[in-house]
Amino acid sequence: MTKDSGQGRQTSCHWKSSEIEFRDLCRALSPLLQESLPDYRDYAIEFRNLCKVLSPLLLELSAPDDPVERVKDNSPSRLEWIRLKRTEGAQSKYLDKLMQMVGLEDAKAFFLRMRAIVQIAKRQKKELSRDDLAIAIVGNPGIGRSIVERLYHRFLSELRAPGYASCYTRDQTHDLKITLNLPDYSDDELQRIMVRIIAGTQWKVEGGPNGKYMWMMVRLVGSARGPGFRNICALKEAWNRALDRQTERIRQEQSEGRHPDCLLLTREDLIGPDPAKAHRESPAWTKLQAMIGMEAVKSSVQLLFDRATWNYHRLQQGSVPLQSSLNRVFLGPPGTGKTTVATLYGQILADLGLLSSAEVVVKNPSDFIAGYIGHSEHRTKKILKETKGKVLIIDDAYMLYSGARAGAHIQPDDFRVAVIDTLVAELDNTPGNDRCVILLGYEEEMQEMFRKSNPGLARRFALADAFHFTNYTVEQLGQILDLKLNNQGLQVTDEARKVAMQMLEKASERPNFGNGGDVENLLSHATEAYGKRAITPMLESPIDVVLEPEDFDLHHRRHLQAAAKCESRFQDLVGVEEIIVQMQEYQKAVASMRRRGVNPRPYIPFTFVFRGPPGTGKTSTARKVGQIFYDMGFLSAAEVIECSVSDLIASYQGQTGKQVVDLLEQALGKVLFIDEAYRLAAGEHEKQAVDELVDGLTKTRYAQKLIVVLAGYNREMVELMQVNRGLRSRFPTDVVFQPLSAGDCWRLLQRELASVDIQIIEESGGVAKVTGAFSRLRKMECWANARDVKRLAGFLVRQIFSRVEDGKDPHITIEEIYQQLELEESKKRVEKTEAVAAAVPREDAEWPKVMSKLVSRFHRDYKQTEKISALEAAVMHAQEIDCHAF
């Protein structure tokens, strides 16, 4: 509830004297403003601070001292009030005051109507309730709502309207009978207000207060008319920007020895510089043009200049300029220059006169988010207030949304939600409001934030007008490297630059590649390596710093030794001779192509199908493939990311595709090894994973940027290749792993025992017996090749060391090894018996009981006697019961 307080009446009583003091102050300041620029700037600050304090009274000050009859306008309400004064002798100093003001025609008509209602009620001796007099005053900022409210209270008091003492006004229409809607000022009304404001000062305007340039400034202000248009406030801000431009012009002219008129505002002061001139002379635009790449961004900024030039010509022709919001979204990967361009963008806006300041303020989401309810809103409003007229950059803005990079099922963070809601509420997106906010972030995360947070955010920041930043090409990275070398006064040999480019090319294939940041890191690493390598310390010889290849990559010649190292990398495996030959062929082809200047990448396979029985070295070979392809220069790291099919399948419907893409992202520049890949043929979710994998390997983002290996058993992998037609075309290269031969098994067992210094005592014919046992074992389906050999070796090692006496060397006879192999063979047969018993359905209900007794008997007899005969007897008995089980 708002009442006419004594303080308000006192303000009204002394209003005329306050007006005189204000104008006297303006006249007193005028000669001081002409003395010197420093004094001018100091007094200007004090003068403008005073204007801000008196801003609520600004509209009243714009009213002339002349009687209402001498006001030159065609207001129907003013003319009606003059008629009433002449015919009825009506008097009201508050109506006079209102009628002297520019515009507000609806308010003037409303006051006359309320005067009539009050007078009729008095004649009728009717008591008016406060609800009959209460009004809701609505309208955009700066239209004069507070002044109209103040005049309305005093006007009712003057009329002595019944119930006026408890009358109240609101800026909301809820539960009120009367709503007074104050429309925005027209351009003509803004012009008249501007003329009245200047009339009280000694300011001079090129072309005169009613001239072309003043009209252009007013028309430029009015072009932003719409929801949130700030009317008088916008006009005042435009005038202050004109004074700022005048200050800068005077400073420049005085530095050139000229003597400008400090009270004169020129065309450029009022409406800003000619965009064509700003285009030619803008230092920020020159810097942006010199930046490497960013063609799409440069085109977008060029469109900004073109639009400004077009509006400038429309303004000169008397047409309304077309404006758009200055708020922008910058999308792109890290290190692509978003922050740098945002700074230049703000300076360009200031050069074009679209912002009052070229200052750029960079904030992070943590600057907005507080730990207590209500504090995030307060912080956000404070930052927005402090950056009025400037460029506010919010880096990594996607972190204002709690779901970014955190999964689809995270609960919203109330503190982050509060920041976004406050931004939406405070940023009205009105063109020409002297504000620019730029949101920076990664494209995917930013789009998710816009899609899932406050819908108003997309209206404040149009994604359709976003500036898109892309990863630099290898050639552009080279240009950035050369530029940084030149700026730091560093030299580099041709071979060293070639090595640096190879490292950047490999690094560019990694997820979250830092672009320009990675170039800076590479150069920093090289200079540190030079400092350690140089014989003469850098402090003693700081001039000639020449970087060599080993400064960028200590092992830059690894590709020359790749072929020689290939065989040694497989020395811990047996039975992989054919695979070694296959990898060596790739290495030889790559070396030959590079010597002839041919890019080998399109001709070397990056996807493989590893198929073979268990224990043949598929996983171990995948790890070695990572090192081999890293040595050949195709990978940025020798790392192998091992996963199973379950890692590809998501827990929620529709998330499998994203999970596959996430794995591909994680494996960029590395090896992705999918074990037991035949399980991808199992069901619908697995089929989705296959489809996504096929699609991903087709895209430029992943094609020939990582090694993908599908591993599994022979028959199952062949069946998998038939699930999706595109799968075989994406994985055309098979690496077949053969079962270990009996000789390979024997050599592997010897090597495992020798690794712990166990001596094998050979006997005549012993090797033949052992290899014969291995021959029988390798024919069994449950034989796991190297895996079983290593398990067997582990058992033998434990047995040998448990019985060896102190002071004697550990040893084992070949006969003992043979006996253990026989035991292993018998165990495998029992395993087969148990598997058959569990897998084959039986009509005879007694069958499971019989098999259970056989297995129990085997375990009991073998445990008691530790003789192979007990084991053999149990197996043979099972075979006699049902030979079809085998």
UniProtKB/TrEMBL annotation:
Pfam families, per database record: AAA, AAA_lid_6
SMART domains tied to this protein: AAA (SM00382)
Keyword Protein biosynthesis tagged: no
Protein name as it appears in the record: P-loop containing nucleoside triphosphate hydrolase protein
Family recorded in the similarity comment: Belongs to the CbxX/CfxQ family.
Stored CDD domains: AAA
Assigned keywords, A-Z: ATP-binding, Hydrolase, Nucleotide-binding
Any GO MF annotation of the entry: ATP hydrolysis activity
Hydrolase listed as a keyword: yes
Gene3D superfamilies per the UniProt record, alphabetical: 1.10.8.60, P-loop containing nucleotide triphosphate hydrolases
Organism: Aspergillus pseudonomiae
